[in-house]
Amino acid sequence: MKTPSRSSSLAAQLSDTPAPLYAQVKQMIVQQIQSGTWPAHHRVPSESELVEELGFSRMTINRALRELTAEGLLLRMQGVGTFVAEPKGRSALFSVNNIADEIAARGHRHHCKVIRLAEELANSERALALDLRSGQRVFHSLIVHYENGVPIQLEDRYVNAAVAPEYLKQDFTVQTPYAYLSRVAPLTEGEHVVEAVLAEAEECRLLQIEHNEPCLLIRRRTWSGNQAVTSARLIHPGSRHRLEGRFSS
User: Fold this and answer.
1) What are the domain boundaries of the chain?
2) What is the mean pLDDT of residues 239-248?
3) SS3 of 228, please?
4) Edge-to-edge strand order for the sheet containing 74-77?
5) Backbone Cα Rg of the chain
6) What is the pTM (predicted TM-score) of this model?
7) CATH number belonging to the domain at 11-84, selected among 3.40.50.2300, 3.30.470.20, 1.10.10.10, 3.40.50.1170
8) 89-244: CATH number
9) Could you report the per-residue pLDDT of 5-28, keeping only the tens digit for each?
């Protein structure tokens, strides 16, 4: 393994401490991020470029990038490259919020893409979740939510058609399903189930993540009065989101 030349701008950032080489590379990248030299969404040099510039082995560079990705500092998008990650979005564990409002509160930009918006007949699973009979009408929406251009949530929602009959007529690129449903069927009760999962292949494609990236899944049901309103699966890439809650005894 050759010794990196300190004449390059990145190599000059390497620590002189006797740390393992991959740790030196990690520290150099963290310094670039913390100093603002590499802001959020900045494209990080490729493995080949870092090997060439730093003079370390590909195995050393790969380990540094993998560990920084696992720690949430970098975002690796298959076929696109490696980028500095946006600081993780946060959601309150025990509340139901509008994702657009959460993103705006962080001073960031929200937009979404509607993948599916259609009427279906409830199978036994959907019917049970919405307190309906099998074969009754439900509305299905599949929406990808983005924060500053990065997908952070896949919202897979089923809606009781009797409670929100105009659901399919809404433009959910202008208002979120949460905002619309809060107006026509105000929330009185909610249920959360949180799981760690691996997303399906199509879900990974929509979220622009590797197939083996852990995801946070929130299964959410809501009621308005005594009527079930929605049953939703909210999938967040684990590297881009966290839940937090506060409680007292």
Assistant:
1) 11-84, 89-244
2) 58
3) strand
4) 43-44, 81-84, 74-77
5) 22
6) 0.63
7) 1.10.10.10
8) 3.40.1410.10
9) 434 577 776 766 667 888 889 888
